[in-house]
Design goal:
single chain; mainly alpha; 59% helix
Length: 44
Amino acid sequence: MSGNASAPPKSTTVRTGSSDKDAFAQVEKWLALIREVAREQAKS
């Protein structure tokens, strides 16, 4: 891995397999949280 020191940080986001599923799950959690906050703001 030390040979990739010159690689841009973006390369860490381009993964395959379970990492994609983990990232997608994280995005879904964030979207749900955002919807919940928006709902709370709409009430007040």
